[in-house]
Specification:
Layout: H1 3-19, H2 22-26, E1 37-38, E2 51-55, E3 64-68, E4 76-77, E5 83-84, H3 92-109, E6 114-118, H4 125-129, H5 133-157, E7 164-169, H6 171-182, H7 185-188, E8 191-197, H8 203-208, E9 223-227, E10 229-230, H9 238-241, E11 259-261, E12 265-270, E13 275-279, H10 302-305, H11 307-327
Parallel strand pairs: 1-5, 3-6, 3-7, 7-8, 8-9, 10-13
Antiparallel strand pairs: 2-6, 4-5, 11-12, 12-13
Helix pairs in contact: 5-6
């Protein structure tokens, strides 16, 4: 190609970039340029299909639980070749996969409570695989925005005289932390507890919001329950479980006193690493994923291994919140 033709091609490309930004969204003309990115349509939380709900509160004495699902999608491609780093809430298959966890969590959390779980454009697993905090923070902005929108809709339509519980697993645990920073003082005043299952709370998080207070026992209210499970402290994954707080959900202690679960599993909190170390449980039903999770850590067990303990504790904290309310 002659130099004049090369100059013309470059000029045309520059014009496309300057005057037609959409060209940069779909363009693959530059060698080595990442594929174009696609962000799915935002949720409309007035649409009932974007919620999983259960009402198990027949006496009216329970709590309203806002549950945030974990990561279920990998990066995927649109029909025109754009890559997407988010779940699509309008995609029935994506909702079906998220529903697996939401239904399972709802089955035990809704006992005596009302359970609400929104579908949201959660960030795909590839962001967390990078183990790069900047990448995770950047990509999860869309996801966290959806969670905030869902919570605000939920809060505006529920009976706010009832106690509130927020719970989330993995990416949902991260969303729980971010949501605690987002909620108003009025909403926080109704918080019985927040459960961060399988994710971290950092010192920076606690400095950013007075709503994030570590639980110290089984019945304190307005607190955050955080835990991560490993077979040995050497398996702590910094991007997920390098946390500044932890409580043992079996005996509700913050020291190294062992607790016996299901008559055969010993759960001991490491005060140094703020994680739960289990003995007598292999977690073999949770297969390793790309040497990232379930490799020495037992990340996928968090909402399920302690479900009986969590279910019982939600009632304890709900009752404690109601007692405090009645005493005012």
């Amino acid at each position: 190609m002659r130099k004049s033709n090369i100059r013309i091609s470059v000029i045309l490309l520059i014009c496309c970039i300057i005057y037609f930004p959409s060209c940069t969204v779909r363009s693959t003309l530059l060698v080595g340029r990442p594929a174009a990115e696609y962000i799915p349509k935002a949720p409309d939380y007035s649409d009932a299909t974007l919620w999983v709900t259960y009402d198990g509160d027949s006496t009216g004495t329970g709590a309203d639980i806002f549950y945030i699902v974990s990561t279920w999608e990998k990066d995927w491609m649109t029909s025109d070749g754009a890559v997407c780093h988010y779940a699509d809430v309008w995609n029935a298959e994506h909702r079906a996969r998220m529903s697996i966890e939401m239904d399972k969590a709802g089955a035990y959390m809704s006992q005596g409570n009302r359970f609400f779980a929104p579908f949201y454009r959660h960030t795909t697993i590839e962001a967390f695989e990078t183990m790069n905090e900047d990448t995770i923070s950047h990509r999860t902005r869309v996801s966290m925005h959806d969670v905030f929108e869902a919570f605000d809709y939920f809060q505006s339509h529920r009976d706010t005289n009832r106690p509130l519980i927020i719970a989330g697993f993995s990416q949902g645990g991260k969303a729980t932390v971010e949501l605690l920073k987002h909620i108003s003082e009025e909403a926080y005043s109704k918080l019985a507890a927040a459960y961060v299952m399988g994710y971290k709370v950092t010192p920076e998080d606690t400095l950013q919001s007075t709503h994030i207070k570590a639980a110290r026992g089984a019945s304190d209210t307005g607190v955050t329950i955080c835990y991560n499970t490993v077979k040995d402290v050497k398996y702590v994954k910094p991007v997920i479980s390098a946390t500044c707080m932890c409580i043992n959900p079996v005996n509700w202690r913050t020291d190294a006193t062992p607790a016996l679960l299901h008559d055969s599993i010993t759960v001991t909190l490491s005060p140094e690493y703020h994680v739960l170390v289990v003995k007598g449980y292999s977690g073999s039903e949770y297969h390793p994923y790309k040497n990232f999770i379930n490799v020495g850590d037992i990340h996928s067990c968090e909402p399920w291994l302690y479900s009986d303990c969590i279910q019982a504790n939600m009632k304890v904290r709900t009752d404690a919140w109601r007692r405090k309310r009645s005493e005012k």
